[in-house]
Every structure is written in C-alpha cells, then in structure tokens.
Amino acid sequence: MENVIILGSGCAGLTAALYTARADLNPLVITGNELGGQIATTTDVENFPGFPEGLTGPELYDLMQRQAERFGARIEIDEVVEVDFKQRPFMLKTHSQTFEAKSVIVATGATPRKLDIPGEIEFTGRGVSYCATCDGFFFRDKEIMVVGGGDSALQEGLFLTKFGKRVQVVHRRDHLRAGPALQERARKNEKMGFVWNTVVESVNGNGAVESVRLKNVTTGAVREEPVAGLFIYIGHLPNTWLYKDQLDMDEEGYLIVDPYLHTNIPGVFAAGEVHDKRFRQAISSAGFGCMAAMEAEKYLASLE
Ligand code: NAP
How many angstroms is it from 148 CA to the middle of ligand 1? Predict the structure, then answer.
C-alpha cells in the first residue's frame, strides 16, 4: 500500500515528488510514457527562476528528478492504464503491476494537439514533428514549416532557424497570439518568414515529407509548397481520458479542482497542465505540484 502515487513526471509531478518525499511519505512516481513531460521536449528554458543563464528542458528535468530522488522519491518508468478512484484504497494498474494507494496526485499534463489532416500521422517521425528539440537536427539546410501563431510556434521556430535553410511560420490569421518579445525576435530573424491567413490541408511525400498543401483562408487559393519538416505547435489537449466518469472535468477535458487542487474525490489531487489551461508554465506547474503535495500530506494526516 502506497501513501501517495504521483502520476506524471513533468514539472508538476516531480515537484510533488520532491515535497512528498521531504514529508517522509515515500512517494512513488509513475512516469507515463512521455518521460519528463513537455519540459523534456522544450529547447531553452529561460524563465525558470534560479537559472539566470537559462538551461535546456532536458537539463531541468534531470535536475528535478535527481532532487526528488535525493529525498527518497521512487521513479517507476511505466504507464498507468486503469484507475479505480471509487474504491478505497485507490487502485492503479500499469502495464506490468497493480498498485494500491491512500492518495493520488494526478499530474499527467497535456500533449500537443494534432491538425488532423491527411498525412499527419503517416509522416510523424518522417518529417512531421511536435518537438523541435528532438528532431530539429535532422533538418539541417532544409526547408522547415512551423504551424501555429502562439509562443510555442515562435520559440521553437526560432530554435529551428539554427538548422533549417528557412523557417516559415504558417498561421491561420494575420495576427500572432505570441507575446511581443518573441514576435520581435522572430520578425528580426532573417531566416524566418510568415505565411498569413493560411492553413495546411495535407502533408505529402514518398516515405518522408516532401511538400504540404496550403490553403489561403481569405482567398481560397490552394498551392503545394516543398518542405522537408513540418513542426506543429497548435496548443494542447489534457491527458485525462483515464479518469473519465471518475474525476470531474470541463468540456475540454481539463480536470476541475478547487483552489487547493482537490478533485471531486477526496484524496485525489491534480497538479499542472492537467487542470491548468491558463498559465501553463514550467514554474506554475511546479508550484501546483508543491501545493498538491502539501494538500496530500494534510489529507494523509487526517486519515490517521
Ligand atoms: P497557444 O497559445 O494556444 O497557441 C496555439 C496557436 O495555434 C494559436 O495561434 C492558434 O491560432 C493556433 N491553432 C490552434 N488550433 C489550430 C488549428 N487547428 N489549425 C491551425 N492553427 C491552430 O499554444 P502554445 O503556443 O503552445 O502556448 C501555450 C501556453 O504556453 C501559452 O500560455 C504560452 O504563453 C505558453 N508558452 C510560453 C512560452 C514562453 O514564455 N516563452 C513558450 C511556449 C509556450 P489562433 O491564434 O488563431 O487561435
């Protein structure tokens, strides 16, 4: 029987692990299949306090994991495939084991949203990517296209200019959602260009991406544009399908929590992008992880 099981190994999960470990709760982290969560696929982290020179996402993940382990957190690389929060103790099944827990912190985050266009799935890993840090290297001196108009599209697009011959940002409107600082950096970068009022209709190629079909949404004009890499940054979907019918969620699937991160089930807490669609920063997720851990500690004390 575990005191607390933490689902997810991103900033929220690892911070919850650190705090519950330091509270002597001997937490177990079940990582999920995206080790380190979104921060592990982020290129440069320049806004996490305490690192004035910035650091890479994988570096931050590694430091957080080591810090949690130093105080006794156990990290299990596995994925939870079934939960039962209706019974006590709670039951959680992974691919290889079944666990029982007195409390659970759900920190399963969110994953990149897909365009849902022909060729997207077929060419994922063969030119279509959701992670510039992971795949940018493969597109040295090649034509790259980034889809989206938010901070992620510009930040990762800027990173991709280190590799690509040219990086074109395709956005469905003629105004970016990204913050002004990133916009300025992007507009100043000679390798970066913008394709406004345009959507990608399909990804085409033979074994690997060779081109995309673009449609201008104001004129209706359609054209084929040769590209080798298509990086998609159009927001996220919360990873909550596992808790359907057990934990309350909103119409988009984000978990509903009270101000202290309690879900509708006493003893089950949520932390990070699994409930937060507003802030979505590494530091805010870490903060939520800390809060959920402190609440879990209180809950466990109340059981005694
Ligand atoms: P986001 O802000 O939600 O932006 C998503 C972009 O994708 C929007 O421009 C949206 O267009 C576009 N989009 C959505 N669905 C689309 C579709 N089906 N087809 C084409 N385009 C589509 O997501 P994000 O950029 O991942 O950022 C998420 C959060 O993380 C934000 O709060 C952001 O500030 C934060 N973040 C911060 C930093 C940083 O501080 N450096 C870096 C990365 C992320 P519309 O604009 O037309 O809606």
Answer: 6
User: What type of residue sits at position 116?
Assistant: D
Spans of the chain, pLDDT less than 70: none
Strands 128-129 and 229-232: parallel
Mark whether 135 is an active-site residue.
yes
Cα separation of 274 and 242, whole Å? 12
Q: Best mutation site among 131, 133, 152 for ligand 1, i.e. most ligand atoms within 8 A of its Cβ?
A: 152
Q: Which amino acid, one-letter code, is at 100?
A: E
Which is catalytic among the residues 44, 62, 78, 134?
134
Say whether 134 is catalytic: yes
Residue with tokens 């990762």: 156
Q: What is the pLDDT of residue 89?
A: 97
pLDDT of 290 reads 98
- Which CATH code, of 3.40.50.300, 3.50.50.60, 3.30.470.20, 3.90.550.10, is assigned to 2-111+236-303? 3.50.50.60
pLDDT digits (tens, 9 = 90+) for 82-136: 999 999 999 999 999 999 999 999 999 999 999 999 999 999 989 999 989 878 9
Name the β-bridge partners of 83.
92
Q: Do the Cβ atoms of 41 and 152 come closer than 8 Å?
A: no
Q: Convert the pLDDT of each residue in 261-276 to its tens digit.
A: 999 999 999 999 999 9
Instruction: Give Rg (Cα) of the chain.
Output: 21
172 lines ligand 1 (CB under 6 A): yes
**Domain locations in the chain as residue ranges:** 2-111+236-303, 114-232
Integer angstrom CA distances of residue 198 from 49, 98, 216: 37, 48, 4
